[in-house]
Design brief:
The protein is mainly α and 351 residues long. It has 2 domains: 179 residues, Rossmann fold; 83 residues, Orthogonal Bundle (Arc Repressor Mutant, subunit A), CATH 1.10.10.350. A hairpin with a 5-residue loop joins strand 4 and strand 5. Bound molecules: glutamic acid (GLU). The site of glutamic acid (GLU) has 7 residues, from loops.
Length: 351
């Protein structure tokens, strides 16, 4: 029997980190079993549906590299399936319709259909798990309390719930529910912080299927970001920050893609800076050395040039200011390697 799992977010916008963990865990499980992952959008509740919410989720999954094999299946388009299922439960006596028109389970009273005929999350989720022939449900432990009632609903509509596994939730570093207030609760926020997608994915894979709740480990995420940037090719790295290929050496010391982008901007379009008056000899010496060197310096040649300037007591900070407009930033030799000769001479003269 083919393993079939589903990832079933509500379209509330960029994925919560905990939801992203659910997505990655489902993909991982499916890959291990040569199975199929269905993307289901739980959009029956208008309060949990925001404009652009589905697009944000699709973007996040794409960014994380989590592929799905079927879907997106939208619950809002499947109302007839839910009413049919409720009719079956009514026919068998497993459900009853009350005076207001709600359909409820006879045992326990859980609402299946509202008086206006729309389905509750509980019924829609169960019907879809059956109808989409889901074999395994992997979701956050916040849904553990639903298990019992969902089993009853499954039997009431003539089926059996798939195997359900719950994983621990991702909490903030302070142990509280991870929320907007923490500033890094969604995939969109991690992306904006400049964490490479491979780092976020690696972190979520590392968490696996936590049995208990875990605290988001930002330090670990940031270390993985450094590793991920180191593992990127020059082409990948410059493409990720929208910089020309020659700038790659400058970006190597950056700890995030945001920082890498700042570094790229420093060498491409430096802000102007005030230079100390005594910087002139250093800049003159630099111009001599640089004009007799090739158009493009290798990082090794650039390091040699920096050493030479230093040996004669050159003011390296002044050179950095002249070339990048900033007192600190990427390795000076990398800047020299990234800025072609004429541009370097112009900046030194202008300063
Ligand atoms: N739509 C639910 C959520 O986003 C998931 C329901 C489920 O996995 O059963 O939490």
């Amino acid at each position: 029997m083919t393993v079939r799992a589903r990832f079933a977010p509500s379209p509330t916008g960029s994925l919560h980190v905990g939801n992203a963990l659910t997505a990655v865990a489902n993909r991982h499980f499916v890959d291990e079993h040569d199975g199929v992952l269905v993307l289901r959008i739980d959009d029956t509740d208008p309060e949990r549906t925001v404009e652009g919410g589905i697009e944000a989720i699709l973007d996040d999954l794409d960014w994380l590299g989590v592929q799905f094999d079927e879907g997106p299946v939208r619950q809002s388009e499947r109302g007839a399936l839910y009413t049919d299922a409720a009719e079956r439960a009514l026919a068998s006596g497993a459900a009853t319709r009350d005076d207001e028109g709600s359909v409820r389970l006879s045992a326990g009273g859980t609402t299946l259909l509202r008086p206006d005929g729309t389905s509750t999350y509980q019924l829609a989720s169960v019907v879809d798990d059956l109808e989409l022939r889901i074999t395994h449900v992997i979701r956050g432990s916040d849904h553990r309390p639903n298990l019992e009632v969902q089993s009853r609903i499954a039997r009431a509509v003539g089926g059996e719930l798939p195997t359900v596994m719950h994983h621990g939730l991702v909490l903030g570093e302070d142990g509280r529910k991870l929320s907007k207030r923490h500033g890094h609760s969604s995939i969109g926020e991690l992306r904006d912080e400049g964490l490479p997608p491979s780092a976020v994915r690696a972190y979520l894979e590392e968490l696996g299927l936590p049995e208990h709740d875990v605290h988001l480990d930002l330090a670990r995420l940031r270390r993985l970001a450094v590793d991920a940037i180191a593992a990127m090719s020059d082409e990948e790295l410059t493409a990720a920050v929208g910089a020309p290929a020659g700038v790659a050496p400058v970006l190597r010391g950056a700890r995030s893609l945001v920082e890498a982008k700042e570094y790229a901007e420093l060498v491409m379009t430096p802000p102007s800076a005030e230079l100390p008056l005594d910087a002139a000899p250093t800049l003159e010496r630099f111009k001599e050395l640089r004009s007799s060197a090739p158009e493009r310096l290798s990082t090794d040649d650039a390091r040699a040039l920096v050493r030479e300037l230093k040996a004669v007591g050159g003011d390296l900070r002044a050179l950095r200011l002249a070339l990048t407009g900033a007192p600190t930033g990427p390795e000076l030799a990398a800047v020299l390697a990234a800025v072609p000769r004429q541009e370097a001479l112009t900046r030194a003269s202008r300063a």
